[in-house]
Write a structure and sequence with these properties.
The complex is a heterodimer of chains A (128) and B (64). Chain A is built from five helices and no strands. Chain A has 128 residues and is an all-alpha fold. With 64 residues, chain B is mainly alpha-helical. Chain B has one domain. Chain B is 88% helix and 0% strand. Chain B contains two helices and no strands. Chain B is elongated, with a radius of gyration of 16 Å. Chain B starts with a helix and ends with a helix. Classes of the chains: A mainly alpha (128), B mainly alpha (64). The interface between A and B is medium-sized, with 36 and 34 residues.
Amino acid sequence: METIVRIGAVCVLGAVTALYLARYLPESGMMIALAVCAVAGAVLLTPLGEILTFAQAMAAWGGVEESVFHPLLKTVGIAILSRLGAELCRDAGQNALAALAELGGAVGALLVSLPLLQAVWELLEGLV
Amino acid sequence: MDVELIFKIAAVGILVAVLNQLLIRSGREEQAMMTTLAGLVVVMMLLLQKISDLFLLVKSLFAL
């Protein structure tokens, strides 16, 4: 709980500093946003790791094979990264780059879940 | 949670902004641009290491 409060405080602090500095130096606003992303992101990932290990234990207990659960895990990671990158580009006013980052995320997610799709396809072929 | 990085970057930003205004007011626009560039490079060096650490952390966490 305390981490969440700290992350909220750091984000608000970064936003105010960025807003203030952007008036004199436009680039520094983006720099501070990047710095806060790096610092708060690093702190946020440790609890996320605990959630993921618990989810993996649940999947193992529930009989879900590793090959099915791994793409899910990777898609979550890809989604986080591409979302962060796209929003940072949008902050800097580059909507085209943001769209490209989101496209990259989508392609990455699809690529990761390709083996899963093939497994479903073979299953269907077997039925027909 | 090392907040020092944010304060370091804010400090460099403020310093460069003040120097920038100082140089522009005294009629040296080119040097003002150089100072801004130097500030940008310093901040990027600070940041790149942190950003790569974040990406490595995400990579290892999600087994990407």
